[in-house]
Write a structure and sequence with these properties.
heterodimer; A: alpha/beta; 2-enoyl-CoA Hydratase, Chain A, domain 1; 3 domains; seven-stranded mixed β-sheet; B: mainly beta; OB fold (Dihydrolipoamide Acetyltransferase, E2P); four-stranded antiparallel β-sheet; 8 strands; about 0% helix; globular
Chain lengths: ~575, ~70
């Protein structure tokens, strides 16, 4: 099959110096916006006790542990800004991402022991579910760095119980294990109650000598007050008893290594535990990448830095999608699928680190004359029309048949609307695409380059494709909303304006409301907001996008649940004809 | 020999990036048109000198209207 995959067609062309000069302002705007995102992420990284304080206790921080555990240069963080519960004092108190450990891809997650010794906090469970979903979708090991003091007691009602509370994590671990996906845990510190189950629910437990996991805590002085309330007198009694009370947390190494054997291994030093986990990765299932490669890995032909010139932060400015793709895929090569059909959509086969992936994206700009064929108005990139929808359905279905992962790129204002569009079956074709995606059971990822809006954001492999979308990235140009704020203001307030005018009232108050709504849409669609609320899983710098694609492709092909032999692939043959 | 750079769409002239007498190369941006809320750049298809600019900012244009003549 080498004629299909080696020396594929080349995408894009080099940027001329004049183009670089002309777009220098855009470069600066993007870089400045990325610096703001980096500052927000750094603030979260620095949150909690200082590193020196943790180290003075003879412990490493989560960041120091990850540095030892993970292969250098392979950390691809996710959910750094994610804070679905809008906590004032922290985000979700865990750190997660994709990384290589001793050459093998894994989903890595750890408690941030700089805050409340790694406690459960509101919103954390939602983060954990995204992490377990990621391991499940990619079929790669889940690696925990456990250091969990249990429930943040003053806020337990927000996450202790319910269908999606922190306890659901343990069922998720069992589910992964039932699917044959191992969960490894490196355990540090005191882990009572919920922390105990965090420690015991994984598959193989690597314990630091000073750690413990237990059903209950060290045994606080009996908490319930006989009076039914606390006063200064009872507070003094507590003080007197507690000062004399010294309890060793139960479930230490003397129990769970020497007696129960829950701990498979015990280590004197923190670093030795992490090294042992690194060594253990070799024992876990993983194909040699050569099994799946269709070509030797190669860098894109054009530099990634060009992306800063190519992706306009001005949302009204059009650009060439293929120029962007050319900076992200191996050799800047592709095999386009149906280039003569559905021009508003790019579909094609690309290689990432030599692995074959399907790729779908929105083209921008005015479409050729006479398109869409069912209407007398011009077509514009970013919108979806009948042919583009049919083409995506075909391509997704073929990728599913060929077991090819799909990388989606969105910059869409939605599907064409109106009775003409309805007669062209666009509503049904949109749902058909959702059906097609659901039929595939192949991993997908999404990069929301700029706009993700309306139903198009759903159907083009968006995060609503829960079972299939492994993760969604945004850029500093991302904006996600059901429609543009101005459109929303018109839809919401036009009738009111008419009524006000007919009644002889001033239009000013309603106009003010319209502008407030526009501002609200703007504020709640920015990249940092999207990351904080989980509309995307991470804001990526443009220069880091290819790294995420490599992590995705590498993880997908490490131990896939199904295989289509290269010489049985049908998509490249259909594309070639 | 002159080359007429024609509008690819019906819209409005948003900005004119060149002036008469400028030297341009193929793929240089010469103006930006606005249509359907999007700004679409128009590029020169040849190397040459801008001989005549037939439109100005704010003008409405139809598809295939001549925008610029390059010599």
């Amino acid at each position: 099959m080498h004629k299909y995959f080696k020396n594929m067609d080349v995408l894009g062309k080099p940027l001329k110096d004049k183009v670089k000069q002309r777009t220098q302002e855009n470069v600066q705007e993007v870089q400045q916006a990325e610096q703001e995102v980096d500052a927000a992420k750094e603030k979260i990284k620095e949150f909690g006790l200082p590193t020196e304080k943790i180290n003075s206790r003879g412990q490493l921080t989560i960041w120091q542990r990850l540095e030892i555990l993970i292969d250098e240069g392979t950390w691809h963080p996710l959910h750094v800004l994610y804070n679905p519960a809008d906590n004032d004092d922290c985000t979700t108190n865990i750190v997660d991402g994709l990384a290589k450990i001793n050459g093998r891809w894994a989903v890595v997650v750890g408690f941030d022991n700089k805050y409340l010794a790694g406690a459960w906090v509101p919103g954390q469970a939602e983060n954990v579910f995204r992490v377990t979903n990621l391991a499940k979708r990619l079929n790669v090991p889940l690696i925990w760095v456990v250091n969990c003091s249990g429930v943040k007691l003053p806020e337990q009602e927000k996450f202790y119980g319910g269908r999606r509370g922190s306890g659901t994590t343990f069922y998720r671990h069992a589910e992964l294990e039932q699917m044959g996906i191992p969960v490894l845990a490196g355990i540090y510190g005191t882990n009572p109650a919920g922390g105990g189950y965090q420690g015991v629910s994984p598959t193989i437990l690597f314990a630091h000598k000073d750690c413990n996991i237990a059903v209950g805590g060290a045994g606080i002085v009996s908490g319930m007050s006989p009076k039914g309330y606390f006063d200064v007198e009872s507070a003094q009694e507590l003080i007197d008893v507690a000062k004399q009370y010294r309890a060793t947390p139960p479930g230490g190494v003397d129990v769970h290594y020497d007696e129960t054997g829950f701990f498979r291994y015990v280590f004197e030093k923190e670093e030795d535990l992490l090294q042992a986990m690194r060594d253990y990765m070799i024992k876990l299932p993983a194909y040699d990448p050569e099994f799946f490669r269709v070509d030797d890995p190669k860098d894109p032909k054009y530099p990634t830095e060009d992306l800063y010139h190519l992706l306009p932060v001005n949302p009204k400015r059009t650009y060439d999608f293929e120029q962007i793709l050319a900076r992200l895929v191996d050799g800047s090569e592709h095999q386009e699928f149906r280039p003569d059909y559905g021009p508003e959509i790019y579909t094609g086969l690309v290689k990432v680190d030599g692995m074959l992936c399907g790729c779908i994206g929105n083209r921008q700009g005015i479409m050729p004359k006479g398109y869409p064929e069912y209407a007398d108005y011009p077509g514009i990139g970013g919108k979806l029309y009948r042919q583009g929808l049919i083409k995506m359905n075909e391509f997704v279905t073929l990728c599913g048949r060929d077991r090819l992962p799909i990388i989606w790129f969105q910059d869409t204002s939605g599907i064409d609307v109106g009775n003409i569009a309805e007669k062209a079956e666009l509503l049904g074709l949109g749902q058909s695409l959702i059906y097609s995606i659901q039929q595939t059971d192949v991993p997908m990822m999404l990069v929301t380059l700029r706009k993700g809006s309306a139903a198009a954001h759903y159907i083009m492999g968006g995060p609503t494709a829960n079972r299939h979308n492994a993760f969604t990235l945004g850029t500093v140009a991302t904006e996600i909303y059901v429609m543009h704020g101005e459109t929303a203001a018109v839809a919401t307030y036009t009738r009111r304006l008419i009524k006000d005018q007919d009644a002889g009232k001033s239009l000013e108050p309603t106009v003010e409301k319209m502008n407030e709504l526009v501002k609200k849409y703007h504020d709640t669609s920015r990249p940092i907001f999207c990351a904080k609320t989980g509309l995307i899983d991470e804001v990526s710098a443009l220069k880091d996008l290819r790294g995420y694609l490599q992590a995705f492709a590498g993880a997908v092909y490490q131990n896939p649940k199904s295989i289509c032999p290269q010489h049985h692939l049908i998509t490249p043959r259909v594309a070639k004809g | 020999m002159s080359e007429e750079i024609r509008s690819p769409l019906a819209g409005k002239v948003w900005t004119v990036t060149v002036k008469e007498g400028d030297t341009v190369e193929e793929d240089d941006e010469i103006m930006v048109l606005e249509a359907m809320k999007m700004e679409t750049p128009v590029y020169s298809s040849v190397d040459g000198t801008v001989k005549e600019i037939k439109v100005k900012k704010g003008d409405a244009v139809e598809e295939d209207d001549v925008l610029v003549v390059i010599e």
